[in-house]
């Protein structure tokens, strides 16, 4: 297993990690198989979505704020219940196909680390599954 560090700068943001993942795959010489990505944080998640237009990531963050507001009828003492709910909606893990030393994604797709309780320094765990 390998770990990647991600530094976030806002309370809520989607960080495109596609290039960093492809670079790590190239450095390791991983050619064909799959990579399992796991977020070990209860207020961070992973998703695949459009990466060509940065407004999409912004719209996802704004949309989630509307669905799950920061302040609400929550009991969790840390004041970040919304972040836990948003993380549960997205999920902590992804399994992605690697072929020819690159992630196999659709034309417009990218991989995002979803920060819902930042800014923080986060970890992204990677496990290679050889094909």
UniProtKB/TrEMBL annotation:
Gene3D superfamilies according to UniProt: YjbQ-like
NCBIfam families from the UniProt entry: TIGR00149_YjbQ
Family designation: Belongs to the UPF0047 family.
Protein name according to UniProt: Secondary thiamine-phosphate synthase enzyme
């Amino acid at each position: 297993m390998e770990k990647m560090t991600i530094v976030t700068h806002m309370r809520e943001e989607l960080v495109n990690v596609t290039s960093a993942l492809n670079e790590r795959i190239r450095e390791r010489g991983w050619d064909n198989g799959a990579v399992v990505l796991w977020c070990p944080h209860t207020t961070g998640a992973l998703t695949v979505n459009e990466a060509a237009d940065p407004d999409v990531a912004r719209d996802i963050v704004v949309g989630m704020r509307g669905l799950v507001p920061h302040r609400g009828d929550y009991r969790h003492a840390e004041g970040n219940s919304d972040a836990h709910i948003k993380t549960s909606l997205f999920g902590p893990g992804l399994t992605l196909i690697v072929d020819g030393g690159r992630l196999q994604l659709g034309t417009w797709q990218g991989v995002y680390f979803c920060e819902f309780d930042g800014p923080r320094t986060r970890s992204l765990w990677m496990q290679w599954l050889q094909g």
